[in-house]
Amino acid sequence: MLKKSQVIDILQLINSENLGPVTFYKLIKRYGTLQSAIANADKVQRIKLISRSLAEDIYEKAIFSGAKIITIYDDEYPKLLKVLSDPPPLLYTLGNVEILNAPLSISIVGARNASINGRKTASRIAFDLTNNGIVVVSGMARGIDAAAHKGAMHACNQSGPTIAVLGTGIDVPYPDENIELYKQIAKQGCVISEFAPGTQPQAGNFPRRNKTVAALSIGTLVVEATQNSGSLITAKLAADLQKYLFAIPGAPSEARSIGPNNLIKNGAILTETANDIIEAIHNNTTQKITTFSAPQKTELLSETTIQNTEKEDNIQRKIIDYLNFDGVYVDEIIRVSGLSEAEVALELLELEMIGKIERQSGNKVALIKHK
Known about the structure:
Layout: H1 4-14, H2 21-31, H3 34-40, H4 52-64, E1 68-71, H5 79-82, E2 90-95, E3 105-110, H6 116-131, E4 135-138, H7 144-158, E5 162-165, H8 179-188, E6 190-193, H9 205-215, E7 219-223, H10 231-240, E8 244-247, H11 258-265, E9 269-270, H12 274-282, H13 303-306, H14 311-321, E10 328-329, H15 330-337, H16 341-353, E11 357-360, E12 364-367
Parallel strand pairs: 3-4, 3-7, 4-5, 5-6, 7-8, 8-9
Antiparallel strand pairs: 1-2, 2-6, 10-12, 11-12
Helix pairs in contact: 1-3, 1-4, 2-3, 6-7, 6-12, 7-8, 9-10, 14-16
């Protein structure tokens, strides 16, 4: 384990403005040590080094929240993440960090507006995988993610472990409806985040979260995903990392089956039960995805998706109706739409991620004009 001062060194560097994991490692390679990288960071264009006192505050906030910080230099750091070219330099963790290096783990992802059958399938497969010693990893989103976590925790006489990867600070459960789930995962498994305590949901953080979800397992299972679903980004990352890729088939007429069915067409392993995953791992089945590509950020919400009749799409369309190019106060959207603050926040985040809206000062949002 590193000394406290060394951990704060990492915190000072990685939390600096315009500096991510890629630049973090480039600076260390260029200057030789963390201390030298910190001393010279301000010489690099656009990087603004945070103060030592601010880094110390981040450390204290993490400890106060009950989190344990593990760094890339610690033995407890997940070995599967270390093989990345740009792994998170450190992770904030709650719970049992030992399962981060479990021999076998599978990520389960899918639609947030999942069907009842989709949630049941994800839960059942997670339950069976956990009972067979395979740790389930997911992103603690509503829908498929939450169902997978719950299924895993009901295994092993309701003491099954699971790993939740957050796109927010370790002390910011998201969405609000999953607060109790967050607490239970911290008790039975492990919650992790690479983002500083207090970090709120931000569009740019979730792709990094998805990459960690994909990298932290030997394979990814996709359960329900529309053609332009963000879950396919995680699937693409898993394929790029040469992981196993599994998908649950569905009826061609069902919009949420389009993503998994296309994955299967392109080489993903058709999966109906946990046994399909276990057998593939046991037989070392080759993952043959060669032509699959994930949708670009600006394509995540197509006209087909907007016209979908699912409840979540109706909510999102309802919110769009209240927006304009000049900007609307978020509080006003909540008032006139009749939706809860959590529902509005979640859908605005999705719209921001897909390039439909932008944030303005004074807690306002506006539609983006596409040329």
